[in-house]
Description:
The chain is mainly alpha-helical and 264 residues long. The protein has one domain (2-236). The chain has helices at residues 2-29, 49-69, 73-79, 88-106, 120-143, 146-149, 152-159, 181-191, 198-226, 228-236, and strands spanning 113-116, 195-197. Helix 1 (2-29) runs parallel beside helix 4 and helix 1 packs antiparallel against helix 7. The two termini are 29 Å apart.
Amino acid sequence: MGRILIFLYGVVSYVIFFLTFLYLIAFVGNFGGLPFVTKTIDSGVPGPVGEAVLINVAILALFGVTHTVMARPWFKEKWTRIVPKAAERSTYVLVASLILILLFREWRPMPDAVWSVADPTWAMVLTGIYLAGYGIVLISTFLINHFELFGLSHVLANLQKKPPPRYRFVSPLFYKVIRHPLYFGWLVAFWVTPEMSVGHLLFALILTAQILISIPYEEADIEGYLGEPYRQYKNRVPMLIPFLKSKGGDAAAEPGGGHRPEPV
């Protein structure tokens, strides 16, 4: 019964994540006309600027801190003394999703324009690039094992009384061009828009800072797990900007799967 409950917990956490991911696309993209989209990043009546900045920054900081800290090995070691190890990844996914839901609910609009593209053709092009950013994110998760990344592989293995997934170093498709295509996709989604408001700019700036702060910690964890193959990969492949020459090194990756030992 415990294994079944952990499996159901993982499935529910994944469903909540996926619905949250879809709502995030509408929220940041200001697609307020879609069914079930009751609020977007610029919708609603603006309030005092100081209050809006305080609340918005606090929620984004909460997301950034939990997202970074809960992914660290030292936290996982302590956390799995409280939650079952098989449910650790699903809990991480659930907490991140619940904080995003809090953000959707409590976000204070700051709609003053930073830039606005009036030409409908260019506005459509920018919207297409915005959506492509989420496409890069989603494809990148499948390249490194989507169901492992979001905890389903762990709870399924636990249900079947199998050992948890093991990791090995590989660099498929996007990962041959940049080390963090998933983060690259998020940056495209945060910044490419035909209408950039002050609130949207605040959102993009803080989450971009969170990504740049997280990457060194994440890479240190991966390098500690994988060792020399990942060090050579770092020397050969740029971090976020495609085709930007990285420093030295020329090692080859193993075939198959994703290059991260535990995606964060």
